[in-house]
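tool_call: predict_structure(chain=1)
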Amino acid sequence: MNIDPHWSDPTSSWWAKAHRAGMHVESLRRQVDAFRSANPYSLTPEPTDETDRLAYRLRFDQHVPVAVSTTVGDILSNLRAALESVAFEVAKRGHGGTLTREQEEASTFPIKATPDKFDAFFTGRRAALYDDRARRAFRQVQPFAHDEIVIQSGVPLDSSYEDRARWRPLYRLDRLWNIDKHRRLAIVAWWPDLIYWSSDGPSNRKMLPGDGTVADGSILFYIHGHDEGMGDKVSHEFNLVVRDDPSFNDGSGATTDVVKLMTSWHRHIVNTVFPHVFTIMSQP
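tool_result:
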């Protein structure tokens, strides 16, 4: 992989913003660790009208700090800004290092769910802004890029480009960034990740669905039966999730912890998007 040293300059705006995003990720990690250590939620067994059945009630004793959501916004903003800086530099390189004011305003990093939407991006005032090499560089990292190759090889997809895009890092990042930029802070909330209990041999306990909600006061689940000498303790692990994430979908999709999610998106930009774009842009 031969990359022009210009693209690796740590003082460039794209690397500076990517590094700043990484600093915000570490800040987020510290904030979430501190919040977890304060035991901000509880899951308490309560008797029910049915024999040998307990209801486990969820209580949120502390709200998720606003600083967590604002830090998520800082990460999204810096990652998206890093991509915008790359797009600006790509445009400059296609025009001898100088852009008109109109060209500067038109430069942006495309993130599109489908090939047709990607192609439509390069019309109007962007028709001459990005050359073929730039378009190849951008296309290679689009949410649809892998699926397009699969289709071209003759293998049909079991869902649409749009449906599959909601699982792709760039698409998800862009959607969340737009929410944070234009509407409100991203909603960060607790979501159950793992529920388990101990038993001396095979367990006689069975978990049953609760009321179907994850809110303060919810009956998260019921436990029917008991294991001799084991009590009613249930171990649990919760993730702080971004409920606005397109792949979340009320828990039926991804429920990745926010720190892990932001870390993976930062790595995706730095270790996948940048190298792919820079490699193509380094070609003659």
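agent: Residues 66-93 form the longest helix (28 residues). Proceeding to next step.
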